[in-house]
């Protein structure tokens, strides 16, 4: 299996002449591994370059600055994540990556912010990088637009009206993450990864990666293939909400990272996670449950699903919050 390249030109906006063709390509990719490269997405290259420069700036701030803004001090898990804080694959060692998490600038009086729901509000910004909040918000808004368009094309690919998922996107849960992977240690064992094998939890992930490579995707046959960087392309993958929404027709395949190709340099990547509104109901859409069969997944809300996943991978107890494991 190779990861297909889908060109969005001609389908960037509703009614675009290539929309049906792109939707068909999406359907094929979604039924294979749930991974594809996206080119012709319309995002300006300088926006991406600026974001990588910011990632490097943030993730090389002094350790005490990053410690003071550790995500564990934030009720919604925004801020810095230490090396080894997350274990994406429970059978592997803790991940060899550090990252910075932020989300959309929801106003403080937004009902979801007031309620303290996961991903809404409460960003933690380092005073040393005053441009960070506005720059991240601009990047998030661009990525949110692209995600919403991809959801429309996914709707088309399922034979649904293009706007089918629009209503679920009211106050979306979005997470922007900037990741730094140190060079993979030469003496690392087979259970050591930059990011252990995992599936993503939300709806759509749009990943910008630097030129080093290191991301691998599991094929339906169980092999691992490299998602090597292609200039001008994002790597897009579907998260676990999509199989739930499509009764398992579309896939969210495992992937993992080892920074073994960079010649000793750190690798930077910038995943953007799009998830629908906290209260969006995730249940099989029309046409995906064969007549006479029961849906394969119990309906849930997007917020419930996401909260569960965060707590599991950061070793937190769902009732008492953060444990003393790190
Ligand atoms: O860094 C990468 O290439 C992938 C990161 C990833 O899979 C994630 O953050 O979910
Ligand atoms: Fe991932």
Automatic annotation (TrEMBL):
Pathway: Alkene biosynthesis; ethylene biosynthesis via 2-oxoglutarate. It is an enzyme of class 1 (oxidoreductase). It catalyses: L-arginine + 2-oxoglutarate + O2 = guanidine + L-glutamate 5-semialdehyde + succinate + CO2; 2-oxoglutarate + O2 + 2 H(+) = ethene + 3 CO2 + H2O. One of its GO terms (biological process) is ethylene biosynthetic process. SUPFAM superfamilies: Clavaminate synthase-like. The keyword Oxidoreductase applies. Its EC number is 1.13.12.19, 1.14.20.7. One of its GO terms (molecular function) is metal ion binding. Keywords: Ethylene biosynthesis, Iron, Metal-binding, Oxidoreductase. Its cofactor is Fe(2+). Belongs to the iron/ascorbate-dependent oxidoreductase family. This is 2-oxoglutarate-dependent ethylene/succinate-forming enzyme.
